[in-house]
Amino acid sequence: MIRPKRRVAAWLACLVLLSCLLPLLSGCGHPETGDLTGVFMQLGKADSILLYTADTTVLIDTGYEDSYDEIAAVLKREGRKKIDYLILTHYDRDHIGAAPEILRRYSVGEVLFPDVAATSDEYAALQRAMEETGVARHPMTADCALTLSPNCTMRVDATALRGVEDENNTSLICEVNWGEFGLLLLGDALKDRMEEYLGETRGTYQVVKTPHHGDYFKKLETCLAAVGARDAVACIGAEREVEEKYEEMCRDLGITSWRTDLGEIRLIYHAATGEYTLSQA
User: Fold this and answer.
1) What is the DSSP code string of 201-258?
2) Which of 54, 161, 183, 234 has the lowest CB atom count within 10 Å?
3) CA 237 to CA 42: how far, in whole Å?
4) Distance between CA atoms of 156 and 185, rounded to whole angstroms?
């Protein structure tokens, strides 16, 4: 039999424990968000990046065909039921694989993609899905500007390159700006595309999603230095190692290297303070 004083002490101990646990429990299923929130998904050697504000949801690339379930889980966790803009930077299978399933299962406002054609099965599946769903299509013949919120814009940079040997050089490049904060997403742009982009680049971009899964090339180093990058994100998996020269480049430039093979990466930007954070799950 528990005596009254001991019963009271036990209840008090339970209340103290509950007060400590409540902040943790209340955060379950409700990840931290900012005025601009970004998720660099952990999909192996594949790209899928979710960006959203209070007004707009953007999904950039869709990983492999079998990446759908993981992408859908992230969208559900983040409370995203509608995709305003689906941006497919280029047609490699590790960037457009799950796009047909996403188009069939989600309300998508508009799809943006390079104004070039491909011959792959993945490209054919994407074309069929766009036809079936009747989604608005925007083949990028010129740059365009999207408004993600009243103070946040995204510029999608289209390439003039045609007939290039490596399809990565047709990549769309996305610039996101909010106040003094900048996020640059380079698709899989390689030497030729990067050289084209560097001829017109403007602004400062603290966070850069680097191209082609941790590869190093001189034009990338030039770009990171030119935009004043502080953090570089590489989308890679265990099946592909980041090049040693890539990590050396980041160290030499004073850039923090982030890699999705080590976990999902989360970007939070708060407009009131003008500060951003990156964290890894």
Assistant:
1) --S--SEEE-STTT---HHHHHHHHHHT-SEEEE---TTSPPPHHHHHHHHHHTPEEE
2) 54
3) 8
4) 10
Mean pLDDT score, 185-202: 91
In angstroms, rounded to a whole number, what is the distance separating the alpha carbons of residues 89 and 92? 9
pLDDT at position 24: 41
Which two three-digit tokens encode residue 224?
């990171």
Distance CA 262, CA 281 (A): 8
How is residue 205 written in tokens? 């971009």
| pTM (two decimals) | 0.89
Report the share of the chain in percent with pLDDT over 90: 81
Largest CA distance in the chain: 85
Strand 152-157 to 173-178 pairing? antiparallel
Read off the tokens for 36.
Answer: 């601009």
150 DSSP assignment: T
Kind of pairing between the strands at 173-178 and 57-60: unpaired
- pLDDT tens digit string along 54-76? 999 999 999 999 999 999 999 99
What is the spatial distance between Cα 153 and Cα 176, in angstroms, rounded to a whole number?
Answer: 6
Query: Contact, 85 vs 58, CB < 8 A?
Result: yes
Helices 218-227, 191-198: crossing angle, 10 deg rounding? 30
Amino acid at 66: D
Cα→Cα distances 43→66, 100, 118, 183, 238, Å: 10, 17, 23, 21, 10
